[in-house]
Amino acid sequence: MAAEATTDTAGAPAPLKTPLHARHVALGARMVPFAGYDMPVQYPSGILAEHNWTREKAGLFDVSHMGQCFLVGPGHEATARALEALIPADIVNLAPGKQRYSQLLNEEGGILDDLMVTRSIEPDEDGALFLVVNAACKEADYAHIEARLPADVKLIRAEHRGLIALQGPGAEAALSALAPEAAAMGFMTARSMKVAGVKANVSRSGYTGEDGYEISAAASRIGEIWDTLLLDAAVKPIGLGARDSLRLEAGLCLYGHDIDASTSPIEAGLNWSIQKRRREEGGFPGAARIQRELAEGVSRIRVGLKPEGRAPAREGTEIATPEGEVIGVVTSGGFGPTLNGPCAMGYVAPAHAAPGTALNLIVRGKPLPAVVAPMPFVPSGYRR
Amino acid sequence: MAETRYSKDHEYIRIEGDLGTIGISDYAQSQLGDVVFVELPVVGKALAKGGEAAVVESVKAASEVYAPVSGEVVEVNGELEAAPGTVNEDPAGKGWFLKLRIKDASELDALMSEAEYQNYVKSL
Predict the structure, then answer these.
(1) Å from A336 to nearest chain B CA?
(2) pTM value?
């Protein structure tokens, strides 16, 4: 038996550790190299149990490897305009205490990274935007952003902070037991509050398709929040393996797989993340391509794929018509524990993108029947 | 009495006369994690020693299972289609993959005994 190729770490520098690293080891996690960090892929209960626990109760994830930074300028409008020159979302009209998902774009409208943008609700923090970017992209993102900021807006890295995500239908009860303000928060809003006595920035968001929160706090104290949440019988630690199967079932893109520098947000089906004013006015990198794609359509589009059998179709699997013509490739795929079956996403021409379209997935040389399926594969639990 | 031998790739073969039952070791299933799909060969297929005999998929990845010796597939464990997790729960028992008619018993000599395999796993 031979495992599929894993990340090649030969010659790589020693992996970085998050502030929670020792806790993962003590909890018996299987640690793997990921985006330069030594991260827990699963705890002893295993990926299936962790996935199901998150869907039914509350899962606690260490996402401290992700890049946290602030853009700080003289006022909200100045900082928002500086960021709007790099992303297609409307940030000028982002209300205090609100959060938005967007993408850093290159001049061709390709996605350099995807990110979350939060405007603080505190009046004395007006002019600051909090960004969370992907771990593997963060150094390139920071260099890209800094090279394009006006003189009065600065990027300040928040490397002294940790980040955890509490996700699942039990998340509200677990967090509001420690911080009652959390219960009243709406989806994609953010507040500062004390959690287990520690000052934290909390947003009601995540990347699992479930209701939940992301909690940012000083690296030196994030462990106190982690430990206190784990005292709740409904909360268990969850590794990156289940995080991946949860986000796949939720139909959420993974950077470097479902989206990259060649894909535009329109091809990726992320049109909803570009507000009306920005579509009309443009003024972001690649605006010409994106406006053209919105008006005239795209040549390929991201779709959900549901294999008919039980064999998972992994990333790289060719997508073909029933007649055998190869029309695309799977960008993420595997087994969906909540679905109790395989699911995948990939890119095809719009002519093949309607839900219900019959296709074949070429798994180990054999065409396996599949249909185009609406996403998310599992209904979202967001608290609107 | 049946004897079990192991390959360095963590397949086992339980030998009863000229029949061998093939599966993956307890160590292998624990390394793989939750098994969600097993692709088995068709009955009658001739397997070459070291060639692909089956594919086992965990939540994370697909892994090939190699034939520890040459032979012809005489039976496959169809129960795994509905319950692939049996490979995790009982790899040496109900989680077997296939039975083959051993072509050349001398190929068994290159495989490890139970004690040798346990030492090998400890060395990994």
Answers:
(1) 8
(2) 0.95
